[in-house]
Amino acid sequence: MIELHTPAEAAELLKVSRDTVYTLIHTRELPSVKIRGQYRVRGIDLENYISEALGWEA
After folding, report:
1. Which residues are registered as beta bridge partners of 38?
2. Which fold has domain 4-54?
3. Average pLDDT, whole number, for the chain?
4. CA-wise closest residue to 45 among 16, 18, 15, 13
5. Mean pLDDT across the stretch 17-31?
6. What average pLDDT score do residues 27-49 get?
7. 3-6, long-range: CB within 8 Å, 24+ apart, which pairs?
């Protein structure tokens, strides 16, 4: 099963504000899907974002 997070959950995991997550989504720095008008972020995309931010290989 694919792990999906709301922007609020993603913000908590990344230790940033929800607005920051929305900015990352809108600038396409953080991949997301929109389901019935609501954004969701896959867990693997959060892991990849963190790895890239730290300069680690994903």
Report:
1. 35
2. Multidrug-efflux Transporter Regulator; Chain: A; Domain 2 (1.10.1660)
3. 95
4. 13
5. 98
6. 97
7. 3/42, 3/43, 3/44, 4/33, 4/40, 4/41, 4/42, 4/43, 5/40, 5/41, 5/42, 5/43, 5/46, 6/38, 6/39, 6/40, 6/41
Cα 51 to Cα 8: distance, rounded to the nearest angstrom:
20
Q: Taking Cα atoms as reference points, which of 48, 6, 44 lies closest to residue 29?
A: 48
Residue-range domain boundaries for the chain? 4-54
Q: Residue 39 pLDDT > 70, yes or no?
A: yes
Encoded tokens for 20: 């920051």
Encoded tokens for 35: 């389901």
Q: Mean per-residue pLDDT for 13-21?
A: 97
Return the percentage of the chain with pLDDT > 90, whole number.
86
